[in-house]
Amino acid sequence: MTISDRKEVTRVEFKKNSERFDIWKFKELCIYEKASDLMVEESKFKGRPINVLDIGCGNMLPLVWFWKSNRTKKSTVLKNYIGVDIDESLSPPVQSDEINIRIINKDFAESSQLSFDDGYFDLVICNQFIEHISKVAQVSLLSEIRRVTAMEGLLYLTTLNGGIKPMKEYHIYEPPLLEMLELLKRNWRVSNYGMTIDMRNVKKAMDKYSDLELTSIHEYRAILSKFGGNMRRIILSTLFPEFSDNVVYMCRRIK
Length: 255
Hints:
The protein is built from nine helices and seven strands, in the order αααβαβββαβαβαααβ. It is an alpha/beta fold. The chain folds into two domains: 3-193 and 245-253, Vaccinia Virus protein VP39 (Rossmann fold), CATH 3.40.50.150; 198-239, no CATH class. Strand 4, helix 5 (135-148) and strand 5 (149-160) form a beta-alpha-beta unit.
């Protein structure tokens, strides 16, 4: 895929996400609200405004969510919010005199190198991006993310779980859960959980873990009766990341 092809795919995806952005849509509930919460939590953890890097930022939806839904004085949470994206036409969706908000144009398929000092960022967000570059480029990018993340800094990474569904035609490599865990655990303390799951895979998961109390038929029926389709996919995927289409990796840098 050429640079121009990647840019076109990116623009189409971002346009689609922008047009359908809604505070109650389940994907935003899973990804952008959590990323927004992490900004506040990490700021409290550090005791100061933090530096945030958003890889493959698109329209900076975690920042948009934070801006719209959080009543906290923004400059007490954020010092810098830097987005990096292949699309040179993008511009920050919000402006602030007190916070440095900007977007840097970059193609990670060409080079993973970032022009920031070691340990500069307290929080790195990488939402549904890494599957758009090759396996080799993913390893290189994660190494560079580690370099620019502070010790005990946080990486919030979401991506597809390779092999659960056929790979999308505009993706380059969708890393399987166990492979990504092995790579991340070299330098990060990792917790992971599913983000969405196909209901057909719930049955497979329940068959495999039938001895667990949480997968009892009673619990399963309670979830089905209480929640609609999208919320079911979120709740059940949390129990079974191995079978989920999308996975969240929460990574605290330890070395």
